[in-house]
Specification:
Blueprint lengths: L2 H19 L3 E9 L2 E9 L2 E10 L13 H19 L5 E9 L2 E9 L2
Parallel strand pairs: 3-4
Antiparallel strand pairs: 1-2, 2-3, 4-5
Length: 115
């Protein structure tokens, strides 16, 4: 596993633990489908939450949340549609959140973008 993959895995672990402490149920990690990958899939009440996890070292000019381009958002949306159809088999209320990790700080952006 490369250094970048290890850092990404640790960031996803931190995001997963953060969400669990907030009462979310983690349904899955690293779902691939529809041409995209979703880092975390969680459930908050009846809402399916697709979570993009972004990590940046402190001092990097681009914030984690700024690094999610419109193209990336489109791929996430396509992967989410695939997840709802293939894994859950039904339409459910859903949203896209971003967990941005900068150094030791975690920022949670609920409903960060819409398709």
């Amino acid at each position: 596993m490369s250094y970048r993959q290890r850092v990404g895995r640790r960031a996803e672990d931190r995001a997963s633990e953060y969400l669990k402490k907030k009462g979310y149920t983690i349904l899955g990690r690293n779902f691939r489908g529809g041409g995209g990958e979703i880092d975390l899939v969680a459930l908050e009440g009846e809402v399916v939450v697709f979570v993009e996890v972004r990590y940046r070292r402190k001092g990097v000019w681009e914030t984690p949340e700024e690094s999610i381009s419109p193209q990336k958002q489109r791929r996430l949306w396509q992967a989410a549609e695939c997840y709802l159809a293939e894994v859950l088999g039904e339409a459910k209320p859903a949203r896209f959140d971003v967990i941005a990790i900068r150094g030791d700080e975690i920022f949670h952006y609920r409903d960060a973008f819409r398709p």
